[in-house]
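Example 3.2
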Amino acid sequence: MHRWERRLHTRDKNRTTLPFDWGLDFLDLPDSPNVKETVGDFNRRTIEVSENYFAHQTRDFQVKDGILEFRSSIESPYEVNNLARFRIFYPGKSRDSAVIVLPQWNANASSHIALCKLLAKLGVTTLRLTLPYHEERNPSGPRADYMVSPNIGRTIQAIRQAVTDARNAADWLQLQGFQRIGIMGTSVGSCISFLAFVHDERFRVGVFNHVSSFFGDVVWHGISTQHVRKGIDPVLSKDELHDAWAVISPNSYVPRLAQSSVRKQLLISARYDLTFPPDLSQMLFEEHKRHDIPYDVSFLPCGHYTSALTPFKHRVGYLIATYFRRHL
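Structure, written as C-alpha cells:
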C-alpha cells in the first residue's frame, strides 16, 4: 500500500518550491528584528481569541446558474481570489438539512462532485466550496501553490479565508430556512471544516476525512508537501514550523468543543496514509479523549491517494453519506 501511495504521489510533475517568506503583511504584523518571536506571539495571542480571528461578516449573496457567490470576508491581495464560490446541489425532494463540502488541496472542478450528488439524492442540499487559490480563484496556476506554501502568513490567511467562506455559506443557508447544517472536508478541507465546526455551533454535524493534529507537522512529514518543506527547511526547524502554524492546527482548538453543546463528529483516518501520517491523526484522537469530548472514528484500509480510487472511494462515500443521513 505504501508503494502504491508513493507511485500515485509521483504522478504530479509540476510541483515547484516557492521561496520562503514570513508573509507578515498577510497577518497585519509590522516588520520586526525578531520575526520568529513576533510570529510566535501572534499565534499564542490569536489562539486565545480565535473566535475573533475566525469571525465573519454577513455578505451580499448572489445566486446564478446554480452558483452561490459573495465577496469573501477576508481580503487577500489577489482580487480574483476574493470572490467566494459554491456550487449548489439541490435535491429532488428537499429535507430541512444542508451540508457544506470542502475538497482537498489542488482539487479540480470535478473533485467531490460525486459525493455532492449522492448527498443531494438523499435529500440534502449541498454546497461545494471552491477553495481559496483554486480553480477560478487561482491567480498563479496551474497548481494551488498559494494556499499551502513556504509563505507562512499567506498560508495562514488562506486557511482563515476558507473558514470564513464556509461560515458565510451557513449564513446563506439560514436565510433559505435551513436549520440543520453539517460540514465536511477532505485533507486540507478537513482541517478547514474542523476549524469552522469548532468556531460555529450552527454546524450540528461534522465529518472530517483524513484528519490530523498540527498543520506544520503534516507539512514537515507528509509526502505531498515535501516541496513546501524544502522552501521552509533552511529557515525553520520542525518545532518552529509547528509553532508558526499552530493557529491553523485542529489540536489548538479541541478544548473549545467542551464548551459547546454536544454535536456529532466523525473523524476518518487512513491506516497507510503517508500524507497525513496516522501518528499525527492519533494525536487528535488523544486530545479529544483528554478533554472527554465524544467523537466517532473510522479507519480506512488504504492511504491518502488510494482513498480516491475504487473500491476505497465507495467506502468513503458510504461513511460520509450514512453519517449525515443518521445524524443531520
